[in-house]
Amino acid sequence: MHINPTSIVYEYPFNERIRTLLRLEDLYEKFSFFLHQPDPLQHHVALSTIFEMLEVAGRADLKSDLLQELERQKHTLISFRSNPNVQADMLDRILEDVDRASSALMASQGKTGQNVRDNEWLMSIRGRTIIPGGACEFDLPSYYAWQKNTPEKRFADISAWFAPIAPLFDAINIVLRLLRESGVTTKVIAQAGSYQQMLQGKIYQLLRVNVVQEMGAIPEISANKYMLWIRFMSQDGDMKPKAFESDIPFDLTLCNF
User: Fold this and answer.
1) How far apart, in whole angstroms, are the C-alpha atoms of residue 63 and residue 54?
2) Per DSSP, what are the bridge partners of residue 166?
3) pTM
């Protein structure tokens, strides 16, 4: 029986803006996982992750950046209507997603996470969680008592605290989805574990490397608008990563709006 090999996709952002979006996407995945678990310790991680989100999303222009990008994508997508090779129903669904995310983000008031910052109790927890072991029961008895609530009650509370931030993450999800789908994938080979490609000054926003997991090859990526360089490494236990010396076939995707 033939078993398809599993693969890992590694992503590399070309600029700080995309780097921030990827960090927030990663935090959201972590938050969503722990929110839907029943244990108080797992809900502690979910709440702590909201605090991390606010640190990363603290840039005042992130919301306006996303609104501008969604509007730009909307105009680009509308221009595809006249293309006979584009499925109209799929295009309409994407446009609906863009419109919905844009409207919700526009309707969200004030600075991202202001509802959390205005909650003195949550801020007292945030202040303790940045200290290693700082959220013990003797430090925060009221938080300890809250953790004794039912999983349903804790889930409802955390969901309510996150709700005003949710439109930001819906917008991030759509922007990154459209960015990833914009890419053209090519099959290439890293000779002796190394690959270089000249970019001739063309601006890209995201690089994706898809490599078969069983090969044990881990890409170390550096890139700018002139050139990208990928060096594959191997990691064995607690040993320092070492250079891969055999040829590595992989899929390379360069993404740009």
Assistant:
1) 13
2) none
3) 0.92
Angle, alpha carbons 176-178-184 (nearest 5°): 105
Whole-angstrom distance, CA of residue 7 vs CA of residue 210 = 6
Place of tokens 């309409």: 92
Are 85 and 67 in contact by the 8 Å Cβ rule? The answer is no
Q: Which residues pair with 254 in a beta bridge?
A: 184, 207
One digit per residue, pLDDT tens: the chain, 257 residues? 555 679 999 999 999 999 999 999 999 999 999 999 999 999 999 999 999 999 998 775 789 999 999 999 999 888 888 888 778 888 899 999 999 999 999 998 778 889 999 999 999 999 999 999 999 999 999 999 999 999 999 999 999 999 999 999 999 999 999 999 999 999 999 999 999 999 988 899 999 999 999 999 999 999 988 899 999 999 877 778 889 889 999 999 999 98
Residue 174's identity, in one-letter code, is I
Lookup: tokens for 193: 């574990």
Dist CA 142 CA 138 (whole Å): 9
